[in-house]
Amino acid sequence: MTPAATAAVVASEAVAAVRAGQPLLVASFVEWRATARALLRAGVPPETVTWGEPGADLFSSAPAAPASALETVQPTGDLLAAPPAERVAQATPRPQVPRSLMEMLQTAACYRDHDRWAFLYRVVWRWQQGEHDVQSPADPDGARLTSMVKAVRREVHDMFAYIRFRERPIEAGPPQFVAWFEPAHDVLPQVAEHFVARMGKMTWMIATPEASVLWDGATLHDAGPLMSGPADLEDDGEALWLTYYRSIFNPARLNTKVMQSHVPSRFWKNLPEGALVPSMVSQAGLGARRIGQVAEVGQRRGTTIPIAAEKAQPDREQPSKLDECRRCELWQHATQAVGGIGPDHAQIMLVGEQPGDQEDLSGQPFIGPAGQLLDRVFAQAEVDRQGVYITNAVKHFKWEPRGKRRLHKTPAQKEIEACHYWLEKEIATRKPKVIVAMGATALKSVLQKGNVTLRDSLGQPVRHGDAWVVTIYHPSYVLRVPDEATKHEAFAVMVEGLRVAQSLLEQSGEN
């Protein structure tokens, strides 16, 4: 039978059924469109038509239906027109609706409602009568149509998000993955096309209470209702997923209202993790939340307050061991704290900036390249390194990653001030007569003055308490400067500084 003859039969049967007072049984959007075209050409008003649904073809109402099932959309907007062969044979005016309205009708056809076909026919009837406001959300029918379209699109999105495939044993044969979902609207065909593109050649099935789709790796099949619920699914790997879900659940950040708003409650019953949520929420209310918050609060940065570190510290017992120090955050990224080394009653104390990469790993100060250069300075100045106490103003290594390397990063003032607690203890215990500050960080920590500069202090010993303070360059500065003349000058300043320190010690009578 030609397309023209088929359309004529549809038209005559539809009009005859309406005149006989019989309902028009429509199972899909394609059938509704053909019937609606015939009724519109016959001038049948919506109030005289009774619509019904004998059962639906799973793929016939999908917006992505193939061109063989849905006539090719023409740019002219003749979307309800008959096929080309019939257009020649008929002289009656052809029903026309714009592409945008047809797309809305096709999407809204997936909305589950007892009168959806009657409503869609009323919309196209009004459009054909010149009431083009029917597509506007300001119109009552337009508002309902827009609401139906949004609900269907939301259901498609939710199905993408909340479908959980379970893997079947290999010996069970295809499909390899099976999922159960309970959609509120007829969106399974659209969702199936999405997973065809996403999962490639893997075989899978999505089952719903009304129908199932099966992908064999090449073709999508309508399998009919095959399952009664998620209890029919088994997955040996699901225990691993549930263990992971328990481990990432943070009771300290639990917000039940937000959880329920992000994942509607009707989805939880079919999610594997849904069975765990009630017990974990209950445990959070019984104390797990409070325990989780203890560690979280301790890690929060908060707002930086411009106040001296010692004044910002709460009244609490100070750490007695350097390894227990938590006065600043540097301990979190360092291997260990690095204390000083040397005689307990050394009369000369050398203070550097902070440990380097090798010092952080070994736990001893100045054993890397800077320490080797310092050995040369001691030898040139004829000062015995073994009689000098050597330490740093900051006890933990502050660094930033650069590829696989850890590069030195200058400590902040608040970190210098926080670590001054330990330097004070070292000075009070050893009571040195001369303190040699190597670099600006060490100088600021020793003098506890933020406005002192390294260049103004070089070669200018100053009295600080019971000790003299001599300033020299830090060994790492000598290693970094590119030109040899500056390097030799800086090295000479270090040597001369140690000689001055030795001379001040001798003048005090403590040789």
Tally of DSSP helical segments: 19
How many angstroms separate the termini? 121 Å
Residue windows where pLDDT falls under 50 for at least 5 positions: 60-91
Assigned CATH superfamily of the largest domain: Uracil-DNA glycosylase-like domain
Strand order of the largest sheet: 3-4-5-6-7
Structural domain tally: 4
How is this structure best described in words?
It comes from Massilia aurea. Belongs to the uracil-DNA glycosylase (UDG) superfamily. Type 4 (UDGa) family. Pfam families: DUF4130, UDG. By secondary structure, the chain is an alpha/beta fold. It folds into 4 domains: 3-155, no CATH class; 163-232, no CATH class; 238-289, no CATH class; 324-507, Uracil-DNA glycosylase-like domain (Uracil-DNA Glycosylase, subunit E), CATH 3.40.470.10. The protein contains 19 helices and 14 strands. It has a 5-stranded mixed β-sheet, with helices on one face. It has a 5-stranded mixed β-sheet with strand order 9-8-12-14-13, with helices on both faces. α7 (188-199) links the parallel β4 (177-180) and β5 (204-207). The longest helix has 24 residues, at 484-507. It is elongated.
